[in-house]
Each structure stands twice: as C-alpha cells, then as structure tokens.
Records
---
Amino acid sequence: ISARLTIDPRFAVGPINRRLFGSFVEHLGRCVYDGIYEPGHPTADAEGFRQDVIDLVSGLGVSAIRYPGGNFVSGFRWEDSVGPKEERPRRLDLAWHSTETNEVGLHEFASWLDKVGSELMLAVNLGTRGTLEALDLLEYSNIRGGTALSDRRVANGRAEPFDVRMWCLGNEMDGPWQLGHRSADDYGKIASQTAKALRQVDPDLELVVCGSSSAHMPTFGEWERVVLTHTYDDVDYISCHAYYEERGGDLGSFLASAVDMDHFIETVVATADHVGAVKGSTKKIDISFDEWNVWYIDRYHGVDKITGVDNWPVAPRLLEDAYSVADAVVFGNLMISLLKHADRVTSASLAQLVNVIAPIMTEPGGPAWKQTTYFPFATTSRLAVGHALEVRLESPTYTTEVYGEVPVLDAVATHDPETGAVALFLVNRDQNESHEVTVDISAMSGLVVTEAVSLWDDDRSAANTLHDTERVGLKPNDSATVEGGRLTVTLPPVSWTAVSLS
Ligand code: AHR
C-alpha cells in the first residue's frame, strides 16, 4: 500500500486551543533551583532567573504552565512560598525526598512567567489539605483587595491579582504513591465540594478534576466514571497523564506509543460522554492532558530514588533523562495525537520544562541547551495554528509486540482560516525504509512549501549533552515539493517531519 493522505479544510476536527502547547514546572530535582533559578549564574537577572533559560523557554512557544506539582503539591503548604524570603520555612518534600527551601514561590514564579510570556495554571493540594486551603489560595491569588489574604498579597508586593484561570483539583489522586491517595468515591466527593466552593468565589474559573495517572492503572476507566459522576456539573476538564519509554529494546512498540495515547484519549472521552448521557446532560467535559512525555521511569526507581531519614538534599539531580532521536520522534508523534483530538483535548502540559524529563537542560554555572524533544515541540507550537484537520491517511502497517498491527505512518494537518496557511506533521515509524507520502491538496489552490524540516539521524541514539550540546537538530527536508495539486514528501526511517505551506 502506498502512503497517501488528503488535506481539506472541510475535514476540520476542531479549533486548536493554544493551551495544547502548555508545559509543567514542578518543585522537583533541578527544575526550579539550578534550572530556571540560579542567582549565581553569569546570565542571572536581578531576580536570580537565568536569562539563557528564559530565552530557550520563550523560543519553545509554551502557553500555560502547570505549577507547582505534580506529586510535590500533595504535601505543599502554599503559605510557605509567599512573604519575605528570609522568613520562609525549609520543608521536607516527601514526594521527592528532598528539602524545599521555598526561595521561589508564587510571586517569583508569576514574575518569571511574565518574562517567558506564559500563563499560570495552578494545582491545589487535595492530598493532605482540603477545600478551605484551596479557597485561601484562590482569595490570595485572584481577589483584588480588601480581605485578609488579598491584602497580604498586596503587602507582599503584588498589587494586581494573579488572575489564575485554570485550577487543577489535586494531582494523581488515583496513585498509591500520592500523599493522601483516595478512592475514586472519596476523591470525587472532595473534588466536587472544592470545585463548588471555588466557583462560589468565581463561577468562571476553569477546573480540572484528576483522571487516571495512566491508562494502565488498575482503576482506569472506573476511576473516570466514578469521579465524573460526582463532579460532572462542577468541572470543565478531566486530566490524562501518560509517559512512554522504550522497554527491553522493543523499538517497534515504543515508536507506536501514540497508538496508545490515541486509545487513551478516545476511551476517556467515551467514558465522560457516558456519564453525561446517564445524567441527561448536554455539557461536554474536555481533556486536560496535563502530563505527557517520554520518561525512562524505570531508571528513576532503579537508580535515582533518594532514601534515608537523614538524607534530604536540596535540588538533587532527579529524572534527568537525555533524549535520543528516537525519543524525539515518539514525542513528536504524541503531539500529533494531541492535535488529532483537538476537539476534546483543549489543554495539555508537556511534563516537564527544565532539567526534569525536560526539553531544556542546564548545567550550574554553565550552558543551557536544547534536548532533541525541543525541536518537535517548538516547531509544532509555531506552525499548528487554526483548526486541526483529519487527513484520512492510508499507510502500510507493521506488527508490534505491545499494540499488534499498527500503521507505519501517522499524520495530522492544520489549517489557519485567517491566513490560509497549512501545516502537516508526520512520523515514519519504519526502522529500515523511507516512505514517500503523496498528499492531495487540490482543495486549496496556489499553495507552495514555505518550510520543510525533519528530525532523524543515522544514529537513533544520538542526543544533545553537556559535552556536545548541538549534536542533534532539525534538518531541511528538500524532498517536499508541490505539483498539480499534490504535495510529495519523503520521510526517512524513524523520523518526524513538519511541512508548512501557504
Ligand atoms: O512529572 C513527574 C511526576 O509524574 C509528577 O510529579 C507526577 O504527577 C507524575 O507521576
């Protein structure tokens, strides 16, 4: 079977919400300290933030950033992170067995977000705290003044409210590792109560209830059903989290990870719609895919994990995966999966942003650099504008150990109705062969290729590291040509490609 697809603006899936290109900063390892914040660094600004990191984050094109966790948030007291720095307590961070100094808190992070041009998305602690503390944080953050907590924010140097729109009702509450882990029934009740309380302050907040930590949790599916049965009328989103890694040298299955992500999204949508049907509701719940990435999690459990009652380091090196070319191809494919479901996935957060399973790495006192995954994210964020389009892809298939028979290729297109610009994102999962793809673009006249780039390398394990920060980058794909209403483009083995036309 030859590889063919069609780009036609009439095949729109839905508008692409910019929040699809969000990320995640957790107080974990060297994400904040020695990552975005390093007062002694030669590029540090007056607030101690690394300018080289600010520049890389700005170039990545990140919309909303979820903060401050993650597992961290389930033991977090937000009050520790505001007020004079010298009075802020040092605390045990049980999630990552570290010491949290609270040097960077809500005010500092919001100021950093202004520098990188991103929006704040806050998670509240529903693990070891409850509705009242969530209300307190909302009052502190969003009320202009005239109350104890809003006046405290003003006294702490921020006259204007933070005006946080997106709020996560806890984190991964289905996970036995989570501080305050609950049953779906117990969590559904506290999430509903907290959501109602937050809406009494501001009915227009956008609220995210916790879905499953992965589609492979034993409670997956039932968790979503029970939690949404409690919270359907109270929330706007249910979260999905998914991490993928190559296991046991099975590259074929790893390259097909997006097949799993597609299935995950479609299953959660079906479950949410089922709950809506039972309730006789016309409302739709969207997905906030607020943690996704490639993550070699087995390495964390095997090597990195910190233990010892007298051992609570500050900003240890944790989850510092170096991403290969193959990892970046899978990563680019995960972005294709998100775009293919843009009608229901209207928010997503790449987990995470700096040093911790991140597209950006730093060395204390030294350079900051782009990992391989930086390239598909930055390019997709820049080019995927307007509506996501279904492309009716015809592709050869191959057989994987984990997912059975899967397409060799995957693709999604976007179309901007305002400018007429079109973008096409593709992956080739074939480990040996290039594939030429023929694209019918006859529905639009006069399009020419304005940019065509691929991420691939003869060495699929190549990565950017401290010792060679620019080993891997995007390569121009000169094969992309338009003739007689057809675009053809050749995809190298194990590659991710973006083509833009206007
Ligand atoms: O992103 C790393 C961790 O993965 C987060 O803290 C947690 O929510 C998830 O399990």
---
Amino acid sequence: MVDRVIAGVLPRVRAMTAYTPGEQPNGGELVKLNTNENPYPPSPAVAEAVRAACGGDSLRLYPQPASDGVRAAAAEAWHRPLEGVLIGNGSDELLAVLTRACLEPGQTVAWLSPTYSLYHTMAEAVGARVVELPVQRETDHSRALLDEGLASCNPRLIFVCRPNSPWGETVGLDELGRLCRSTDALVVADEAYIDFSHAESALELLDQHQNLVVLRTLSKAFSLAGVRIGIAFASPDLVVELDKLRDSYNVSRLNAAAAVAALQDMDYLRANCDRVMASRQRVIESLRTTGWQPWASDGNFFWLPCPGDDGRAVYSRLADAGVLVRCFDSPQLSGGVRITVGTDEQMDLLVQCLGNFN
Ligand code: PMP
C-alpha cells in the first residue's frame, strides 16, 4: 500500500535530497550561532502590534490576500513603487515562486558556489538543470562572475546571493549590472544579509534592468526569523506574474502586523545592525590574535577555516562546550565552519572555547 502511494510521487521528487536546515534545538542552554538569526530582539513596536492584531474578532477572518499593508510599508521603507513589491512567507517562498515561474524540467538555473543550499533544493523540485560555478575564495567571486560568465550557460534563472552565505563576500553592483545586461535570464539578487554590509543594495539597479529581482527578508536584520516575511522587489509586470504562484493568504494577520511595525521602525533596524557589525569586527580581530584566520565578512556571520580542514571536528568540540555553529558536508565547505555573529558576551565565549583548541 505504501509503495503504491509513493509510486504516485514524481520520480524527480523521490530522487530529491531534502534541504538540511541548521538545527533548531528545543530549549536548552546552547549558544545558538548556527542559523544567522539576530541575537537581539525585534523593535518593541512589533510585540505591541501583534497584541493589537489579536484584538476583537480579527483572527476569525482571513488576512489581506496580497498583504497590501506590508507591501505599502516595504515600498515606503525602501522608496519603491507599491506595484513592484511582492510579499512572501519568508524569502524562501519567493525563491520557490521564482523557480516555478521560470524553470521547466531540463532548463538551466545557475549560480556561483558555494552559496545558499536551498537554491539547489528548489531547482531539483522542478527538475531544472543546475550549473554551479565554483569559486575558490572570497576575492574570486566577482572575477568568476565576469570571466567565466554565469550568462554563458544559457540559463533562464541566475541566483546571486549578496552578501553570499556562507563565505560573506559581496558581488559588486558593477558586475551585477553587467550580468543583467549580458543575459535574458532573470537575475535574482538575494540580499538577505545586505543590511549588515557596507555595500550598496541592488535596489539601485532595479530601474535600469527589467530582468532583475531583489529579495529581502525580515529574518535577519529585523530580528524576525520566527515571523517569516520575505519581500521581492521587481518590475510591476513581473510582480503580476509571480503573484500568481504564491500561496493564497500566504502571510497571516499576526505576521503582517509584526512586519508593518518592524518596517516602520527603520531607525531600530539600523542601530540593531550596527551593533552586530561592531561585534563582527571585534570577534574577527580577537580570533586573529589567537591564531585563527577567520575570513572578513559582509554578513551577520563569518567563515572560519579549521585546522586539518576538519570543520566537523571544530563543530563537535564547540557543541560539547554548548556552542552551536554550522558545518557542511560538501567537499567545498567541509574544511571550515560558519559562525553567526551573536552578542559580545556570546562572542567572548566563542573566542574562549576556540582558544582552548590551540
Ligand atoms: N537567502 C539566504 C541567503 C538565506 O541565508 C536565507 C535564510 N536561511 C534565506 C534566503 C531565507 O530567508 P527567509 O527566512 O526569509 O525565508
């Protein structure tokens, strides 16, 4: 019976590897530095707005179908036209929408690797052909984009994560603009971490390139990973098409209330990110004085190459000490760990634990 049921599932889905998210332990005393969450709470306005949204009989009713309140708040926060904004249940939903909108089985999606591994899962789900151009190190990133040319593999969709996870480098706007000009593919600039960077946002390029989509999320800089809000900025014509593929009522009333409150408190966001960026600088400098060689990063995380190229050993030793970081099994990434920037106290503990290695 089970076999008969499973046989109804598409072969390519059965062949897929599920996305492996970072661990989300329940409770416990772990210092959680594995999924690039923000160590600070969201704007105080968020809890107030969520409480207010629970009032009366509002939860009995469906939310706004296209999250118009959130769209308007996002449009205002980033000075973009309302018609060019689409709201998702996290930017993960928007990545799925984009993949389904652009790719039929066998068609090509391309990116520089390593990068956010969910792109691969999304591509597999629709049977797309994946072209991953490996880069060696942070500084190779822009050059590979230019020289090898993501555009030359005839893709219909290109993902550019800027700043990129897990290494923290950022493709420049010049390169990105050139890429947009050199291809008919849709180019998606995934800017989940841009607020932690000194680099300019690709939002600046949107009016020049109809094939550019810029993704933002409230999960990182806005400290709202638990709320699940992603934002796509694109040409209004494209938004009309993408909107057909999102889930109906994809943003709950409570999530929408939280998002609007957060988007209306951009001063809080800036102060929040500045604190994280200062801690990033501090922890990278401290680790360098103790013999480690963490890479510079534009995100709220950094890459730490590990002794003997054994990221898992460092992961395990830190986990034993109650500090959870992220390690990856792919050959390109097995030699290090990705560490989320936490509070200064958490970073002091990390530096202390890593000091015990040497
Ligand atoms: N893009 C990148 C590069 C990410 O690291 C993440 C978070 N894991 C996402 C998108 C997804 O963000 P969200 O929480 O909005 O779905």
